[in-house]
Write a structure and sequence with these properties.
The structure is a homodimer of 135-residue chains. Chain A has 135 residues and is mainly alpha-helical. Chain A is 54% helix and 6% strand. The first copy, chain A, has a single domain (4-131), classed as Winged helix-like DNA-binding domain superfamily/Winged helix DNA-binding domain (Arc Repressor Mutant, subunit A, Orthogonal Bundle), CATH 1.10.10.10. In chain A, strands 1-2 form a two-stranded antiparallel ribbon. Chain A is elongated and about 60 Å long. The two termini of chain A are 30 Å apart. Chains A and B meet through helix 1, helix 2 and helix 5 of A and helix 1, helix 2 and helix 5 of B. Chain A binds a DNA duplex (30 and 30 nucleotides) through helix 3.
DNA sequence: TTGTACTGTAACAAAAAATATTACAGATGA
DNA sequence: TCATCTGTAATATTTTTTGTTACAGTACAA
């Protein structure tokens, strides 16, 4: 499992905390303790989804593009996730086995509904709620 | 993300389908299309949790140790999961940053409740229900 | 108009995690 | 007593994730 979700949430929390001030990838990376290039990549994704925006050039950096109360954690999760939460299944089970032949379809169905429950739970909380935890 | 959950579920489904007959790790591995040693390791874990049992020696193999209707998928997930579903967070964010200093605790809290929702959803379905999908 | 400090992005390297392989002792049945 | 399994360790390979280096392009500011 990669750490894109926690990294994204960390970035968003920092940007929220910055109250509109632009933050450099260098600074964000310093708080998270990862490479600035990874931060910039993650920010590209967050931008693509409309959560943040950024300014190039001297004095540039990034900032929240919408109100923290309008970003829910289910959306953040969705924006970040790539493969199935329950573990990617083998692409090529044995087609000669009646179970092997059908398992991927049924796993996909199972994952889809389980993931939906996860997302619904995360969606109950906004970035603003989450940031409220910090003092 | 490893594929322990789908592998475990695949094994359990095959054993259920076998209706009590012992199945060799070789056969199971053949349906899943992975290495038999991995199957045996996964079976050790499923055994430890009381889902299956196995017989050594010639003609040996494994079989379900309880009724499929008494194994729910939430339990299977719990038996198999190692790290956090939402991605493990960095162990060492910057302690000098007020956000970095506290984020891990809050991520853990968030994960715990989100994972709970996932498990509750999975628990609605038993192995018997899942196996019913196959024909 | 030139230097400085950023972003965006690609290409490559290193580290970590997952999976596969080999090997073999011990159990069990025929 | 042979053949066929499990259980398990040790090691190798592959894949995924993360880090690093590099540099073009943008914007501000002296």
């Amino acid at each position: 499992m990669n750490s894109r979700f926690p990294v994204s949430l960390h970035i968003l929390t920092l940007l929220h905390d910055a109250k509109g001030q632009v933050m450099s990838s260098e600074y964000l990376a310093g708080s998270i303790n990862i490479n600035p290039v990874l931060v910039r990549k993650e920010i590209m994704n967050l931008r693509k989804h409309g959560f943040v925006d950024s300014k190039e050039g001297k004095g540039g950096g990034s900032f929240l593009a919408k109100n923290a109360a309008d970003i829910n954690l289910g959306e953040v999760y969705t924006a970040v996730k790539s493969d199935h939460i329950l573990g990617q299944h083998k692409k090529d089970p044995n087609p000669k086995c009646p179970i092997g032949r059908q398992i991927n379809q049924h796993l996909t169905d199972l994952y889809t509904q389980a993931e939906q429950a996860l997302i619904e739970n995360l969606s109950k909380q906004t970035l603003a709620d989450f940031a409220l935890n910090f003092n």
